[in-house]
Write a structure and sequence with these properties.
alpha/beta, Rossmann fold, two-stranded antiparallel sheet, binds nicotinamide-adenine-dinucleotide
Length: about 300
């Protein structure tokens, strides 16, 4: 009997949630202020990370910028300062747990608690599974997912104490679909989506409703992360547009940020399609790209 009542309650919660979504389509979501907030972004020496940093700089956040590339991360810090923000650049290899813990300690003692943590750094090799070297597979997982654990472990305790903060995960559409020549990358991004989803659930279960989470899942973005990307079904996105969607999503506490948003409908639909149709669709997409580890691009 109790279970039936819970199902009825669930039904009304679902109706309420759909109505809420409907209303929110017409009323713009409230954007939170991040002025004075300490924002840490990994992989902020280039691409989505750098552009996201510049957007938070324009909102007068305090930037802590981590990247393996010294020159590039210092350049991002300089650009943030030109926008009037305080910015600190750190050279951190996010594939090294000890480097992460050491840098996190420095941040906490020299600057303070992080309010918004953006796990963005990523690597991709883009080679056929049997050509992948063991060290490449390890690197993919170290940077694209394990680093999220070490960095979040470092900064979450202070957020928990205050019941305030935001953890943003940069995953990918590759965290929802499988693509040829990206077995390690997709598996790591599935991990990143799982990290975000489980973290969201756990924080809710612990009553930490002041700590928000967001996950960015774009299709190809023209940052140079992969070279000459193209697909027949999706556009190749401008980095600036992706960074804008990402920051808008964080400011409005959006949980899952698909870019373009139509990806969500595609994924929903693909749940109901037979595997044969999905494989055919993947072929139709004619995904092509190269990386510095592989020049061949054709996916068939
Ligand atoms: N570009 C795309 O097509 C695309 C699509 C979906 C998701 N993403 C994801 O977006 C994120 C950012 O990618 P991007 O397109 O801006 O790439 P990018 O190459 O422009 O920037 C990645 C940054 O991460 C840094 N980095 C790499 N390894 C690192 C390490 N071990 N430690 C610290 N920093 C390291 C690089 O130096 C670089 O500054 C990645 O997680 C990527 O998987 C990218």
């Amino acid at each position: 009997m109790a279970l039936i009542l819970e199902y009825i309650a669930l039904f009304f919660i679902a109706i309420y949630s759909y109505l809420e979504v409907l209303v929110k389509m017409f009323i713009p979501a409230k954007r939170k202020s991040v002025s004075g907030d300490i924002v840490l972004i990994t992989g902020s020496g280039h691409g989505i990370g750098r552009l996201t940093a510049l957007k938070f700089a324009a909102l007068q956040s305090i930037l802590i910028l981590w990247d393996i590339n010294k020159e590039e991360v210092e350049e991002t810090a300089e650009q943030c300062r030109k926008l009037g923000a305080i910015a600190y650049a750190y050279v951190v290899d996010c594939s090294k747990r000890n480097e992460i813990y050491a840098a996190a300690e420095k941040v906490k003692s020299n600057i303070g608690d992080v309010d918004i943590l953006i796990n963005n750094a990523g690597v991709v090799f883009g080679v056929e599974f049997l050509e992948l070297q063991d060290h490449q597979i390890e690197k993919t997982f170290e940077v694209n997912i394990l680093a999220h654990f070490w960095i979040t472990k470092s900064f979450l305790p202070a957020m928990m104490k205050k019941n305030r903060g935001h953890i943003a995960t940069v995953a990918s559409v590759c965290g929802h679909v499988g693509l040829t020549y990206l077995v390690d990358y997709c598996a790591s991004k599935f991990g990143a989506v799982g990290f975000h989803t489980c973290m969201t659930e756990e924080l809710a279960a612990l009553g930490k409703d002041g700590i928000k989470t967001s996950c960015l899942c774009p299709v190809f973005v023209n940052t140079g992360f992969v070279q000459s990307p193209s697909t027949r079904l999706w556009p190749v996105l401008k980095p600036e547009d992706v960074a804008q969607c990402f920051v808008d999503g964080i400011l409005t506490n959006k949980k899952m940020i698909f870019v373009p948003p139509s990806v969500k409908s595609y994924l929903l639909l693909s749940n109901f399609l037979p595997q044969r149709v999905i494989s055919r669709l993947n072929k139709m997409q004619d995904v092509q790209f190269s990386t510095k580890f592989r020049s061949a691009t054709k996916m068939d």
